[in-house]
Amino acid sequence: MATPSSKAGTKGVPREHRRRQMLEAATEEFGAHGYAAASLPAIAARVGVTKTLLHQYLGSKEDLYVACLVPVGDRLLAAVREAMGEGGTAPHTPLRVLHGIFTALEGRREAWFVLYDTTLPPGGEAARRASEYWAAIDRLAAGGTAELLRAAGSTDPLDADALKYVWRDLVATLVRWWVKHPEQTPEAMTQRCARLFAAAATLTPDGRSG
Known about the structure:
Elements: H1 15-37, H2 40-47, H3 51-58, H4 61-84, H5 93-105, H6 111-115, H7 125-151, H8 157-179, H9 186-201
Helix pairs in contact: 1-2, 1-4, 4-5, 4-7, 5-9, 7-8
């Protein structure tokens, strides 16, 4: 689900502002349709320019994707690192991380799907840059989940590995749900997650509320 399309003319628009409009429109298009199905003419139409001018400003489709990816990846990495910060083993750290992610994506929620795009051509610059961001975020997740387990008394490396996968999929699922509910603010989503986590913590191994 994308945010409303960017619409702007080009006459008299400063070059940097026009470039920013193109990147915003491309982020919407890549986020809504994925790299493979994204249309350069559609991106150009969102801004009110020609496809030729889009190429002149930002190069090939892959160049354009990378130009959209980098600020998204940098912003999310910074948000996670800041949220973990000192005391990254505290029980409330997962909620801080989620709040940081929601806040970083607010106003551009489709950017999540630019970072985690499964349609990128393998072996290209786009796939390489995306995988670097995935790996960096995974390393933070692995460290954070392992520390949380140690604080809870578990030092089993397989527990830590399993929790890392659970956390990664949980974040992706929550963001997808959030995109479908645009009325939900980052603060509301964080509070909702806190309620869900609290409810899950009361379940006994047989699935009943304890």
